[in-house]
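Let us work through a complete example step by step.
Step 1: write down the sequence.
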Amino acid sequence: MASEENAHILVVEDEQRIRTALIDFLEFHGFTVTPAVDGLEAERIVSEGKFDLILLDLMLPKISGEQLCSIWRQNALQTPIIMVTAKGQEKERIKGLDLGADDYITKPFSLEEMLARIRAVLRRTDPARAVGQTFRFADLDIDIGALKARRKDKKIEITKREAAIIQYFAANPNRVISREELYKEVWHDTLTDLGTRTMDMHIAKLRSKIEPDTADPTIIKTVRGAGYKYEV
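Step 2: predict the structure and record it as tokens.
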């Protein structure tokens, strides 16, 4: 299987037909799946176990998906959440994202689209799942565990934060990554003015180590007014 193998997904869906189809499809693609039929059961299951991703229907009995998302994020749950909404619930979808959902999908949806969104969120929120601990980054060989980069015979030492930045860019090639997103995923916090300065210092330091020409970065490029981009 691909990099999502063994990821554990909680499927919170009260419609049996949809729930069964999702479970069968996701298990076929190598995921471990735990089902929950209502919001109360989902709340209990999450309090007892750890998941790589939660697939959360918005309209649930007992506790709504919206309430659950709010409760979990208030309790600092970092597990990525994909909200499932019915067609026409635009306000609810926006509210779900504001509450901390990582993505949403609208019913009716194809199972292939659902799979693509799950894979995308897993790559975005867990770079190690996408690129692993050793990988190629531009012309560099990266070893996350050893905190080393190598360009031909030259060894470069990197910090844990720098390794996390590299890993996140490697997992999201050819995509503009905003400062807000990078700070959230690497520092696990909301970007502030102080955070912006901190991040810019880290990027500058990392570039001084890995860029052939720091005056003209070609590995981690600045996209003016938008953020950064790693092009493959």
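Step 3: interpret the result. The radius of gyration is 19 Å.
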